[in-house]
């Protein structure tokens, strides 16, 4: 399958300056050629033509930390103290979810991700075989991992998670990759974490974990072990693997050096850290130290959506607030952390640049339809600081169009709305 | 003109609990009747029918601090140190703007405001007679004031501003109100401020001013006068008038009591305070002290849009961060600060509640179209924490439909896009 995208107003890719008036030729799963429209006549052979007049092209966004099935908890619990939020709302709800609920809750989240320009995501939850079915069906790219909480999952959960990671890796034409995912150092004991670490090393799997999310977590470790969670994990060489660490909001002295030394991949969740009042992560310090930072939305229950453009603006403005510096995190940096840094975080090669030889995961954004794109001084600024996801017109993943002119090509929206709504409201009724 | 809105899924108004399955009858400029759909048969006489099936109704949002014409500077200057942002970008651009530019730049902003559910705004800028023409034409409600910077405007500017305030008050079927607007205590001297204060008292006009926006402003006052800007103004009784004070980010001890004692109307600009790295205003403390807080977007050049839903989420999550408390600013509080508190800030009666006898300024929001409204556990949470402005379907101001099913009824979008773009790019070329 060859797709020709012509008349592209501008291409943004973090490896190069903006290119104007271009075409892109996609062949099967790969970006084959990018050139000026002056040379379009060279391209005679293609199966599908997209006219990108008045549109810009960017790599698809990569959401590196989420729990997509939790989309079914949107609006179910807000503005609550963390302990009541978890104990009275989130945990009781989760205790009643079955694998079909996870399927439909995830499907609802995938609609939102596609419609807001996300082409790949890293998910940590349960019944990941059902999530994998949806990744297969939707056409998205994903890094999937069964979440492990020792007291709930134990040896059986570990075996299931490892089995999933080994069996599902590289499925769906290579769009699925897998990791192991111990929930956090405070929900998994040292022995359990070491077992996970050894399995990850043996099978060359990455590890996805929550780390230093709240002050309480850090203080609990300081009280119990006289060291931070970061130091605690480092002391038994947990970081020897490829580590995707979500949050990393609260650091103790020496922690940053540990993250840097171990090439930890930080998944920053600015909106979740806001909703749950955890604070603002020291992202500018990470970036200055060449620690790779990407962005996650976290689950919808702590956000309340999966919109990477909202994260982009929030991330930038929160860094400006934290460092009292309006130059903190500019649009070029945002582009990197939403795209190429996400690919690095998920350990995926040849992804997230608009470049020949790279995977064809990209989005077309309409810059003439909506008032928030006018005037056109700087389309990247307009996209990250002014626009809404509704300007995302067309989404291509692995060389396949999964949304065109805002019409979803792989998912049945009405059916998913119906099932996710029905199941979610039924569960909440059981709890009340 | 009588408009009947039937089948409303839910009505949100900060004076009452959510009402389900309702109709609203609007007669001329006023909400005449609200009742259950069971009683719709009583209503035989109407000119226009709106079916609000799958829609919720809220009062229109009130943006209490903006400079709408600056929409023409969107994306023109971002991520820069404040002094270079002003001296190299904003001021040179503003020095080249004429009143036609202001007209078209403002028109561009009005499109965005209507499309995101804003029905009233408080504007401080130049050539306000041209802005008033657009308020008249667009059907929006606005509180307008000529901004005064002493060194630029002097006596002549003061005369013009007062003349405008007296002549334009209550124009456009009463949709226009006016204030006097000295820019800030650091750009207007004490004598000039006292002259403005006396004129405001004499003519019963409110005063719109920037106050305690940056640390630098406060520190400069402490160095020069050994008191904060708030204390400085209070010491010559500047606050005797109805005062709309934008920002109020940085307080010195005693300032909060002065704001409270003088019933200062705080216009909170969370996103602008983020972009310009000014910090997070102590809004929770204001609310605890019964200081009236409303929300402004500020100008687009320091935002970069006019979307009150973005402000809502940012405001709530920033307060949670500042106070390390996830219960800080819940959805009911957000509803108040976006609606009724805005009416109070602008000194407008019978506005911003969905209540018989109140002005018919309201919006219909589609809760079934977009994935981010699913599932429907809590539509107010979904609106403020998950939705995008694209869900706003219909906007009514003063009993007149100005957008219906997302079609603008009063403004020519294509013409405005064309003019605003052309003028804005031409100005930026002159500067380079």
From TrEMBL, chains A, B:
UniProt keywords, alphabetically: Hydrolase, Metal-binding, Zinc
Gene transcribed to yield this protein: mtaD
Reactions accelerated catalytically: S-adenosyl-L-homocysteine + H2O + H(+) = S-inosyl-L-homocysteine + NH4(+); S-methyl-5'-thioadenosine + H2O + H(+) = S-methyl-5'-thioinosine + NH4(+)
Family annotation (Pfam families): Amidohydro_1 (PF01979)
Cofactor note: Binds 1 zinc ion per subunit.
Domain of life from the UniProt record: Bacteria
HAMAP family: MTA_SAH_deamin
Cofactor: Zn(2+)
InterPro entries: Amidohydro-rel (IPR006680), Deaminase_MtaD/DadD (IPR023512), Metal-dep_hydrolase_composite (IPR011059), Metal_Hydrolase (IPR032466), MTA/SAH_deaminase (IPR050287)
EC number of the protein: 3.5.4.28, 3.5.4.31
Record's keyword annotation contains Oxidoreductase: no
Name this polypeptide is given: 5-methylthioadenosine/S-adenosylhomocysteine deaminase
Protein's job: Catalyzes the deamination of 5-methylthioadenosine and S-adenosyl-L-homocysteine into 5-methylthioinosine and S-inosyl-L-homocysteine, respectively. Is also able to deaminate adenosine.
Record's keyword annotation contains Metal-binding: yes
A GO MF term: S-adenosylhomocysteine deaminase activity
Positions annotated to bind substrate: 94, 183, 213, 298
Domain annotation Amidohydrolase-related: ranges: 56-402
Residues bound to Zn(2+): 65, 67, 210, 298
């Amino acid at each position: 399958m060859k797709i020709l995208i012509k008349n592209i107003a501008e291409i943004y890719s973090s490896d190069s300056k903006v290119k104007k008036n271009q075409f892109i030729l996609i062949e099967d799963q790969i970006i084959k050629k990018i050139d000026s429209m002056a040379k379009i006549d060279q391209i005679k052979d293609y199966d599908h033509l997209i006219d990108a007049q008045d549109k810009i092209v960017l790599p698809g966004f990569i959401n590196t930390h989420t729990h997509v099935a939790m989309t079914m908890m949107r609006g179910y619990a807000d503005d609550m103290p963390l302990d009541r939020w978890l104990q009275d709302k989130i945990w009781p709800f989760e205790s009643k979810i079955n694998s079909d609920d996870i399927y439909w809750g995830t499907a609802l989240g995938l609609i939102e991700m596609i419609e807001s320009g996300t082409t790949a995501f890293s998910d940590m939850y349960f019944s990941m075989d059902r999530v994998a079915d949806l990744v297969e069906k939707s056409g998205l790219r994903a890094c999937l991992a069964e979440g492990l909480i020792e007291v709930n999952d134990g040896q059986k959960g570990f075996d299931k998670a490892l089995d999933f990671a080994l069996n599902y890796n590289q499925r769906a034409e290579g769009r699925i990759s897998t990791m192991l995912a111990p929930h956090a150092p405070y929900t998994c004991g040292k022995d359990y974490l070491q077992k996970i670490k050894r399995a990850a090393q043996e099978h060359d799997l990455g590890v996805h974990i929550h780390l230093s999310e709240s002050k309480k977590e850090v203080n609990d470790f300081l009280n119990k072990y006289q060291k931070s969670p970061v130091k605690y994990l480092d002391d038994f060489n947990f970081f020897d693997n490829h580590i995707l660490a979500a949050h990393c909001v609260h650091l103790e002295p020496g922690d940053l050096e540990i993250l840097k030394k171990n090439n930890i991949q930080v998944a920053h969740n600015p909106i979740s850290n806001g909703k749950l009042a955890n604070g603002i992560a020291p992202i500018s310090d990470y970036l200055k130290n060449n620690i790779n930072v990407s962005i996650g939305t976290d689950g919808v229950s702590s956000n309340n959506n999966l919109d990477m453009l909202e994260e982009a603006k929030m991330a930038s403005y929160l860094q400006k607030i934290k460092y009292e510096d309006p130059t903190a995190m500019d649009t070029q940096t945002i582009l990197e952390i939403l795209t190429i840094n996400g690919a690095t975080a998920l350990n995926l090669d040849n992804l997230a640049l608009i470049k020949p030889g790279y995977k064809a995961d990209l989005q077309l954004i309409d810059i003439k339809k909506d008032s928030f794109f006018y005037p056109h001084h700087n389309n990247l600024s307009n996209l990250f600081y002014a626009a809404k996801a509704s300007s995302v017109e067309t989404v291509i993943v692995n060389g396949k169009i999964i949304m065109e002119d805002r019409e979803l090509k792989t998912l049945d929206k009405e059916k998913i709305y119906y099932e996710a709504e029905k199941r979610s409201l039924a569960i909440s009724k059981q709890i009340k």
